[in-house]
Amino acid sequence: MMSSFLFRAMDARAGIFLGIMAAVIILIPAGNLLVPPGSPFHVPTYAVTLMGKYLTYALLALAVDLVWGYCGILSLGHAAFFALGGYAMGMYLMRQIGTRGVYGDPILPDFMVFLNWNELPWYWYGFDMFWFAALMVLLVPGALAFVFGWFAFRSRVTGVYLSIITQALTYALLLAFFRNDMGFGGNNGLTDFKDILGFDIQSDRTRAGLFAASGIALVLSFLLCRAITRSKLGKVLVAVRDAESRTRFLGYRVEHYKLFVWTLSAMMAGVAGALYVPQVGIINPGEFEPANSIEVVIWVAVGGRGTLVGAMFGAVLVNFGKTWFTAALPDVWLFALGALFVIVTLCLPKGIVGTIGSGWNALRQRKASADYEAGSDEPPASPPQSAGSQSRSSQDTSAKTAEPQPAE
Amino acid sequence: MARSNSLLYLDGVSVSFDGFKALNELSLTIAPGEMRAIIGPNGAGKTTMMDVITGKTRPDTGEVYFNGTVDLTGEDEVSIAELGVGRKFQKPTVFESHTVWDNLELALKAPRGPFNTLFHVITGGERKRIDDLLDLIRLGEKRGELAANLSHGQKQWLEIGMLLAQDPKLLLVDEPAAGMTDAETAETAELLKDIANDHSVVVVEHDMVFVRSLSVKVTVLHEGSVLAEGSLDHVSADERVVEVYLGR
Ligand SMILES: Nc1ncnc2c1ncn2[C@@H]1O[C@H](COP(=O)(O)OP(=O)(O)O)[C@@H](O)[C@H]1O
Ligand SMILES: [Mg+2]
Question: Helix A351-375 and helix A309-328: axis angle, to 10°?
Answer without folding.
Answer: 130
